[in-house]
Design a protein that fits this description.
Outer membrane efflux proteins (OEP); 2 domains
């Protein structure tokens, strides 16, 4: 809820809960030449803020992942070509699968020889899975779920950046209103100081009154400096969020300095919030991984066709050919068939992975339920803040009128010698606080409306309502 701080503190701190992370924005972009409305500032943040662009690139990467998963339906073709110079000694016996000892073909000769010959090979293998019991389809669906999750995260980033830009916009307006009120308070303090100083010099008032008026004047200057500083900090935050320079941040308040005509917000289910949809995508991602595991314990069938040729300079009897014998393939072969592979002992591993994913799904579902509950609570708090802001906006005009009357009466009483400087100073402080409260009251209602739309996950109605009509 928007609220004014006391004159001894920063009157716009209530507007700055999320400005800190905005200061991590990227470099400068084109500078706006005309004052920005709130709607224009939000759209510019959606366009310029690096986090939004990064999330969109992640969506594109996830879309490419779908194309990658679909390539599993295509046949695979492997080409091989090689040439070597090696000895031809072969031995009987078993050699377990490994990657160190190179295989050799041909008969075992009666004696070993270090004579070496040329060898060559050239071949093509085409392999294709005619059916896979739904494994490839589950993989493609998992990639589609990843894309949906990336889109949901992009929507979350876009929503948060838009809400932050709108909040920063309102923060600057609040700072500007506080600066105006502080300037008015300084002018009153200057008038009082001049009057009291003249009376003290004429010995019509004690010197203590002059000292008190000097202190009040210094305090009024300090408050104006702090208010101006808060405005500049708020401008810097919005400037970096929009990707522009500090001097280019000029705002058009429009209807935001008036109370909104309609403060009723339609009910929107929390499940429609971008954060809820992103969390639901996380649940679906776990479910898609479970489908892949369900279809992983099946045989793999592959249709295969190969053609190849080999060449060697060695003869079956141990003789060798000429110097160039074996440089090119001279013995052709071809084959067509189907191979079936089945990892029978993978079942315990798959069961453990399924258990892991089952617990992951329950955890993500619990996070979804917690998020829905949190969003409902945020919406209820925003509605309560709106109700309080409306009551404050109805009360501040009464407070301001009474404070103005009190300040005038205190001045008259002091000039007539019926009151002290303390009473006048207190009346002026009450008037300055009332002016701040009244100037921020309308913005408090707008801030509460923004909080409601942010909790509902849709800023468009708020942006349309903020348009100057």
């Amino acid at each position: 809820m928007l609220r004014a701080e006391t004159l001894r503190g920063n009157p716009v701190q209530a507007f700055c809960p999320i400005l800190g992370w905005l200061l991590a924005a990227a470099g400068l972009a084109a500078q706006p030449s005309t004052p920005l409305t709130l709607e224009q500032a939000v759209h510019l943040a959606w366009e310029k803020y690096p986090a939004v662009r990064a999330s969109l690139e992640q969506v594109s990467a996830a879309a490419a992942g779908i194309d990658l998963a679909r390539t599993a339906y295509l046949p695979r073709a492997d080409l091989l070509g090689q040439i070597n110079r090696a000895t031809r000694n072969n031995v009987f016996g078993l050699l377990l699968p490994q990657q160190v000892v190179s295989p050799i073909s041909g008969p075992v000769l009666g004696r070993a020889s270090m004579t070496n010959v040329w060898g060559s090979a050239l071949g093509l293998l085409v392999s294709w899975e005619p059916f896979d019991f739904g494994l490839r389809r589950a993989t493609v669906e998992a990639a589609q779920t990843a894309k949906q999750s990336a889109e949901a995260q992009a929507a979350v980033t876009r929503h948060e950046v838009g809400a932050a830009a709108a909040d920063a916009f309102l923060t600057i307006l609040a700072a500007q209103q506080t600066v105006r009120a502080a300037q008015a308070g300084l002018e009153r303090a200057q008038v009082l100081h001049q009057a009291v100083q003249a009376l003290a010099n004429a010995e019509l008032r004690p010197g203590a009154d002059a000292s008190r008026s000097t202190a009040e004047l210094a305090q009024a200057r300090t408050l104006l400096i702090r208010a101006t500083q808060a405005e500049q900090v708020s401008r810097a935050a919005l400037a970096q969020l929009l990707g522009t320079s500090l001097d280019a941040v000029a705002l058009q308040a429009g209807s935001l300095l008036r109370l909104p005509l309609d403060t009723d917000a339609a009910d929107v289910p929390p499940s429609q919030h971008p954060r809820a949809q992103a969390q639901n995508s996380a649940v679906e991602a776990v479910q898609s991984r479970q489908k892949i595991l369900d279809r992983s314990y099946f045989p793999r069938f592959r249709l295969q066709g190969t053609t190849y040729g080999r060449g060697t300079g060695a003869q079956p009897g141990g003789e060798t050919g000429g110097p160039a014998s074996g440089l090119g393939p001279n013995v052709p072969n071809w084959a067509v068939g189907m191979s079936v592979t089945f990892s029978a002992l993978d079942l315990p591993s798959l069961r453990a992975q399924k258990q892991i994913e089952t617990h992951n799904q329950r955890a993500e579902a619990a996070r979804y339920d917690r998020l829905i509950q949190d969003l409902h609570g945020e919406l209820e708090k925003a509605r309560a803040a709106l109700a309080g802001a409306r009551q404050v906006a109805e009360n501040t005009p009464i407070q301001l009128a009474a404070a103005r009357a009190l300040e005038q009466q205190a001045g008259v009483r002091y000039r007539a010698g019926l009151s002290t400087i303390v009473e006048v100073a207190e009346a002026q402080r009450l008037l300055s606080q009332a002016e701040i409260d009244d100037s921020l009251a309308g913005l408090g209602v707008w801030r509460a409306l923004l909080a409601i739309r942010a909790a509902q996950g849709n800023l468009i109605p708020f942006l349309e309502q903020s348009r100057d009509r």
